[in-house]
Amino acid sequence: MTEYKVDFFLSAAECNAQQEISLPLLAQRLIDISTAHASAIGVGYEHLLKDNNAWVLSRLSIELTRFPSINKPYSLVTWVEDLNRHYSERIVELRDDLGEAIGYGRLTWVAINIVSRRPADLTPLLHKVTPSNRRCPIERHPRLGSIGIPDHVTMYKFQYSDIDFNRHVNSTRYIQFILDRWGVSHYDLNRVSRFDISYHAEAHFEDVVEVRCKGDEETQDVEIARDGVVCTRARIKFCPRSLPIIPVKN
After folding, report:
1. Nearest residue to 63 (alpha-carbon basis) of 192, 173, 241, 162
2. CA-based Rg of the chain, rounded to a whole angstrom?
3. The whole model's pTM is what?
């Protein structure tokens, strides 16, 4: 099973204010299909846990020409592009209701031993995975360094709804914090064309973090840090919408 496909339908409850799939939900869908495919070929969480190992999302990149829109079907197709004994680089292709590719995601998964917290050796499982010959057209994840002196800083204290089953902050919640740096009118005029995020350290319930931003109207670099320790770095790129969204007045 080199490729794995899942069909979806975008309901109104899953849309953002622009009647498109929200970026955090799309990111979660990429994570979910990656997890499902890994389980289907025998290298999922349940298989790694037998040796006290687990997959950890290290980096995520999403690049789109447009977003799936309200009340329309869409689908995701995933495959493994690269693999070694420590990590897996997985691709997810996003298709619209006509089956046309409208975007891609790149996910780098690292295997760790949950007892030692050190990199795990996946050599015994490598024979179960057949990387695809398909190449992903989007660039690999960029190296995101320190942003230096930020243009803008906001504080946030993690709450109950930010925490997942591992008792740390859910990976998609960081994406929500970053998107919230801009208002609704900004997204009416612009859309996200590329989003890159890397995860460095865990944050937990009631941790207080700084959300630091630096950049211009087109590109923003973001750091989320706790007590001087960077939890997450990200880069978000915007492009003008071909047709600005005009909200309907009730």
Report:
1. 192
2. 18
3. 0.93
